[in-house]
Specification:
The complex is a heterodimer of chains A (about 525) and B (about 350).
Chain A lengths: L1 H12 L3 H14 L4 H9 L10 H11 L2 H11 L2 H8 L12 H10 L5 H11 L2 H12 L8 H11 L4 H8 L7 H7 L21 E2 L13 E7 L2 E8 L2 E6 L10 H6 L4 E11 L2 E2 L2 H5 L9 H6 L2 E11 L2 E2 L5 H15 L4 E3 L8 H10 L5 E8 L13 E5 L3 E12 L8 E10 L2 E8 L5 H13 L1 E5 L2 E4 L8 E6 L1 E4 L7 E4 L2 E6 L10 H8 L1
Parallel strand pairs in A: 1-11, 7-9
Antiparallel strand pairs in A: 2-10, 3-4, 3-5, 5-6, 5-7, 7-8, 10-11, 12-13, 12-16, 12-17, 13-14, 15-16, 17-20, 18-19
Helix pairs in contact in A: 1-2, 1-9, 2-10, 4-6, 5-6, 6-9
Chain B lengths: L8 E3 L2 E4 L4 E3 L7 E3 L14 E4 L1 H11 L6 E4 L6 E3 L2 E7 L7 E7 L2 E5 L21 E6 L11 H14 L4 E5 L5 H11 L6 E3 L4 H9 L7 E3 L12 E4 L15 E6 L6 H6 L4 E3 L7 H11 L3 E7 L1 H10 L4 E3 L30
Parallel strand pairs in B: 3-4, 4-5, 5-6, 10-11, 11-18, 12-15, 12-16, 13-14, 13-15, 16-17, 18-19
Antiparallel strand pairs in B: 1-2, 2-3, 7-8, 8-9, 9-10
Helix pairs in contact in B: 2-3
The chains are: A alpha+beta (about 525), B alpha/beta (about 350).
Chain lengths: ~525, ~350
Amino acid sequence: MNRFAELLDRLSYTPGRNDKLALIVDYFRHVPDPDRGYALAAMTGTLDFKHAKPAMIRGLIEERTDPALFRWSRDYVGDTAETIALMWPVRRGVNRVPDLSEIVEELDRTSKLDMPGRIAGWLDALDENGRWALLKLITGAMRIGVSARLAKQALAQYGSLDIAEVEEVWHGLEPPYLDLFAWADGLAGRPEHGALAPFRPVMLSHPVEEADFARMDPADYRAEWKWDGIRVQAVSEGGVKRLYSRTGEDISGSFPDLIEAMRFEAAIDGELLVVRGGAVAPFSDLQQRLNRKTVGKKQLSGFPAGLRVYDLLVEDGEDLRPLPFDERRERLEAWVAARAEPRIGLSPLIPFASFDDLTELRGHAEAESVEGVMLKRGDSPYLAGRPKGYWWKWKRDPFLVDAVLLYAQRGSGRRSSFYSDYTFGVWKDGALVPVGKAYFGFTDDELKLLDRFVRDNTINSFGPVREVTHEPEKGLVLEVAFEGLQRSTRHKSGVAMRFPRINRIRWDKPPREADELQLLEKMLE
Amino acid sequence: MKAFTDIVCPTPKGLYCPPGDFYIDPTRATERAVVTHGHSDHARAGHGSVLATKETLAIMGARYGADFTPSQQAARYGEKHRIGDATVWLSPAGHVLGSAQAVIEAHGRRIVVSGDYKRRPDPTCAPFEPVSCDVFITEATFGLPVFRHPDDGKEVAKALHMLEVFPERCVLIGAYALGKAQRIITLLRQGGYDAPVYIHGAMEKLCALYESLGVELGELRLTKDAVKGEMMGKVIVAPPSALGDRWSRRLPEPVNAFASGWMRVRARARQGGIELPLVISDHADWDELTATLLELSPQEVWVTHGREEPLVHWAGLNGLKVRPLHLAGYDEEDGEGPQGDNLKSAEDAAGEPA
């Protein structure tokens, strides 16, 4: 358990993705089975202990500490599990430190009645860090900045495996993943499993550049809308129905309405969207349905989930992935037509003769639900990963606005000595109102110049935040690119941007020439 | 019979002793001051006279210039001094070099002002000595039961382990220039680190002073004199404000560490962009505070700067007569006062040009 606690502790303070990977790989290398398998399960969120819940743990600390002292402490620390870990009264020499596997297996096996005593015994035996890790494990809210995908990536890196293959076998396997580690260690082959409705690694596209078109014959390509939703894989086999994200995370729980509509034997690739009366709603509507553990009636009726399908991977047990796109498309169209399921609609092909036709269409697409166009070769098989030369994404040009730098905040990790997070605003009735925040889009050299500007033009400091000069004649204009705009009650300006980034620094432009809020409000209409 | 407050009472300038007509750690200039230790929120310049340990006087001289007061009175630990109708003597507080508790005796009563203190061993200063008393005035910087400082040797070992894991980087430890920095360097030496320790220019004077007062720090080098690549795999000690400063850009991919009791709370470390929190404090943790109160069991406990409320609550539950004093002004110097770590505040004032 100490080794696992140390891993979580280090991960929680390590900002960089590669450094996190290195820490996890190092852990897999040094910790034996089955502990490392349970650690992988904890990081991928596949553990659930039905008798160990946060309320019970709160009860344990209330029995042992003064309630007022607990309340002050909780207010100060800001996290219940951490507060309990720090406050737990020490009883030295009461117990040996348990292994992670022992804890996981006992948590699974122990009855509700015996659970409080069992957990208290472990808390007595562990140190602060160990207690924190145990409580994070039990409550399932790790918040260490590690996604399931990153943990699988670490396993792939550890065993020099292909991440797509790891994702493909993943859903048939159970903690502590002994066969997976045996495969990674080269002691056994790829685990085979008879699990139904597994995830198939998705095929991804490359962004198309102007220069690529010269080498592309329009006749070889099919065009589809690039929807502004969530790429998913809907699989229903032998009564098992699952909805996967593009990285293979099972998100079925958030979409019972869609699961209910999956009355078929197939694996399909498509876009998850909110669809009302046949019309696709903007991404902000879909956000109401994402990352929810339970879905209320209001969400189900107000934000109904639907699919726009664009590929058929498996039909009635037949793997169609080796077939060329055109053949799969034919099968897909017939398949959709035969179903007449209102939640499952076909993502149409867009007829075009030349790429110029598409340029035209791309600009006039349904503004809120489409981000551009996909180009797919008619002869492309369905390949895992991002193979070169088959699929291209052609995003609509971003929206641009000239805004004025208002505040800057220091970054973290390698950027901790740089003011690298910028809050910017536009004019409204002669004053600047903040409309967004951006922290990328510039080069390292530009970052140095921006940092210099912030330090030389600070008018106020609030902890790590600096307010910089922003007067009509004096200040810095940033050309901000963004993908879309939503109404927002959280922002003073009433608007919120999607994916804002610094497109250009307008050293030449005085703030008075920056844009008005009206311009953004017009985009909303 | 005189009341305790006739011997020591809180005033806007700090604790005042009417029978001796002097202040203890006054926050403003006064005629006569007794100073417990050299941190600037306790030791200010401009008093008419100052009684303190010789180390504290030397620290004040190094920071404010030799003329920080017209009259210096060096007191050895345990040596009694008559001031007016009061007797004052100093007892080690274990906080930083030269730190002392002020013991005040008058009208047949004894009141101890702890200043800042800790109970665990510190190789750079004399250990806390408990003095039985009628009133014990305690600090409460870490007066919450979540603050239990771990073994400092193990904390420093974490920094040394980082050097092994990332040999191409350096470990930059933010530590207050007076006390914490020298303690960290000494702990590094005890942990087997015998390479040069690189220090920020703002540390130079106080490190030299510590050495002249007999605290050995081993080989120190200034970061500004280091050539490219020299600091890879090395430990650098700097004031906390230098961590986010442009100054740090000259260092080879520093692992930002911060040595403070506040590092016990994860959110605190993360807000400061700290990659390696080191829970090392020069203040008593919760267990030390409560054990000290039980050990002394004075007639009354008065609680000054820090988280008074929880400690007052605990003392009440444990049958002690207790009151909070609500003194203002003790928070800045070692960054462990009630305002917490001022990691961000004095940012560009770290003393060395970028």
